[in-house]
Amino acid sequence: MKTIFLILTLSLLMSSCGDSDEGNNAKTTNNNTLTTNNEGTATKNGETNGNNGTSNNNKSPDELQIEMGKKLFAMPAEGGNVFSCVACHGLKGEGAFLRPGHPMTGVTKRETFKNGQLDSLNDAVNSCLTEWMRAPTWEEDSDEMKALVALFERDAIGSGDELTFEIVDPPTDFSAGNAAEGQTLFNGACAVCHGVDAVGGPLAPPLNATELSVEYISERVRKSGSTDSKVYDELTGGIMPFWSKERLSDVEVVHISTFISELEEPVVDPDNNDPGPINNNPGRDCEKTHAKVGKVLNFSNLFHDVSGRAEVIDDCTIEITGFNYDGAGIDVRIWTGAGSPPNYGAGYGISEDLLKAGGYADVSFTLTLDENDSLDDIDGLSVWCVAVGISFGDGEFE
Fold this sequence. Notes:
The chain is of the alpha+beta class. 23% of the residues lie in helices and 15% in strands. The chain has helices spanning 2-15, 61-74, 85-88, 121-131, 143-153, 179-188, 191-194, 214-223, 250-261, and strands spanning 25-29, 32-36, 42-43, 296-298, 307-314, 317-325, 332-337, 360-368, 380-385, 390-396.
């Protein structure tokens, strides 16, 4: 169901870009293009569509290349997270939603990108792939890059004037904040990822269970993004794209922050602090022979109020104690990392999904490794948001 919702969301975003001939949902995986027509019949490269008898072989190479470009623009990149180009950029204009990135109009005519820091469109695309979509880069002569350029050049609209943006500090005066105005603004921009009225979506978590302050919300809006970015300065962490002052004014940020901060909290039973079905392999008994037995880590807090302690109890058991986490996100699990520092991007999950209304407060639980897993590959643990590939808090065993 989550996959279907994601495809429907991206299809809506693509149609809102002004691409009126876009009639298909599609995903490219392992160089096999799978297309679903309006009646839901799937076809692969060169195969005949049973509903109308047409085939990709009847289309010209240029048409096929543009179709591939549409799919690459609309769907998550292979090997990356759930984000796609269309989540942040309109194709022919702003479309139905305001997005954090400028539209792609005239992009192939520009001489520089990212405030003049990059000299080629290929470098700009790769910046988005690595920093936001957490996907492998594309070579300039790759089929993917050629297809995306063909899509951008199809209509050749836009002047190609250089676009600039300014990352600014968040506003500090929220006295004029209006929640009703903020709701309208939120649903015209932030709802692309967080859903209408912040109930959550396939690209971002709900915001109505967070007790976030207006100061924190506005800081995330203005400064969210990788702290080690090669093209953006002064970002403070996270995977949510920042909103520059050209895309949202301070007044708009104040209204949006006020709306989110006043969202009602879900009703949570304070006596129910059961961590739930966290352990995915209960019931194994193991020896205590591994060198990591007895080693501990303390989770850092990067996002969502994460804290706690983990200890290796035996060759297949890790005990988590004093665990705190607000329960928000999209598919969040205890995740492994190997190396020093641990590489969580190449790790795997050892718990069930931790999402939970009301979160966790000072709870304890044990995790039992699968028979095919080994402590040799576990040098650290993270509270990991699988969908976007980011750590909410982590630590290395010592």
